[in-house]
Amino acid sequence: MSKKYTVPNRENDNNYMLDTTGYNHIIISAEKMNIVKKSVSYGFRYYSTALQDIELSGKGAKTYNGECISETLYIPTLEFKQKIDIVNKELDVHLVPEIASCMRDHSRLATTVIDASVKSMWYRFSRREDDYCIECSADGLNFDQMRICHMRKGDGKIQFGIYACSPEESSFKAIFTDMQMMECQWRAHEGQQPDEN
After folding, report:
1. pLDDT 10s digit of each residue in the chain, 197 long?
2. Beta-carbon neighbour count of residue 96 at 10 Å?
3. FRET partner for 107 with CA separation of 20 to 30 A, picked from 16, 152, 153, 197?
4. Structure pTM?
5. Which residues are paired to 190 by β-bridges?
6. Rounded to 10 degrees, what is the CA torsion of 126, 128, 132, 134?
7. C-beta of residue 44 within 8 angstroms of C-beta of residue 153
8. 111 three-state secondary structure
């Protein structure tokens, strides 16, 4: 089944992002499938991501080794893939456009939904000792957090970079411009004082 890209209606309180756990709960029984199908008549709308579909399609979930080469860790069965196709069709599951950050050798992709009409993005990569923050912005002024993480042994000299790719079998042209090195823009967390007991 070919899914359509759709930006979720933020006015709808019943948007639901299906991840692997969500799919597994739905396909566990016909009773659960019928309950979820009924929810569509109450205004529930279901979404997934292209990266999620790669995991569920049989191409496998990806992690990255020390050479930044993806490794397949899980291959779903044919029966599982067929059940996912039924869920996608019955619930009219749409794809949300997204951008992602990837930390090599430490974790998998973290994604952020963006409107398909956005053609330019700003990114900011900040560091405080061995803690890191990745942000994105549609206007270069107001940034949204994509990921905060701690990198073991990440407080010394590091290498970092950017790349663009499509999770689908397609291509596009990406141009990176205006790269700058500057003082850390990630505000220090002043923290909440501990409770007095």
Report:
1. 577 778 778 788 888 888 777 888 888 888 989 999 999 999 999 888 776 777 666 565 555 555 555 566 666 778 888 888 899 999 999 887 766 555 555 545 566 777 767 788 899 999 888 888 888 888 889 888 888 777 777 778 888 888 777 666 677 788 899 989 888 888 776 666 666 76
2. 22
3. 16
4. 0.51
5. none
6. -20
7. no
8. strand
- The token duo for 136 is 């994105």
Q: How crowded is the C-beta side of 51, counted as CA atoms within 13 Å?
A: 19
3-state secondary structure of 103: coil
* Residue 112 structure tokens: 């952020």
**Calpha distance 85→79 (Å, rounded):** 10
Are the C-beta atoms of residues 146 and 138 closer than 8 Å to each other? no
Q: Which two tokens stand for residue 91?
A: 């619930």
